[in-house]
Amino acid sequence: xxxxxxxxxxxxxxxxxxxxxxxxxxxxxxxxxxxxxxxxxxxxxxxxxxxxxxxxxx
Length: 58
Fold this sequence. Notes:
Blueprint: H1 8-28, H2 31-56
Helix pairs in contact: 1-2
């Protein structure tokens, strides 16, 4: 995982899916949607941080 280098469009897709699942989970309170968000959100954060680190690396 240390060599994982996400592309910006992958991070954008993960972020879009995570936000959509979060909104759907708030609206419906369905356990499956909430668990889906719980599965996608850490992956999204990890990808965002890796992308930011790559962009700020000298």
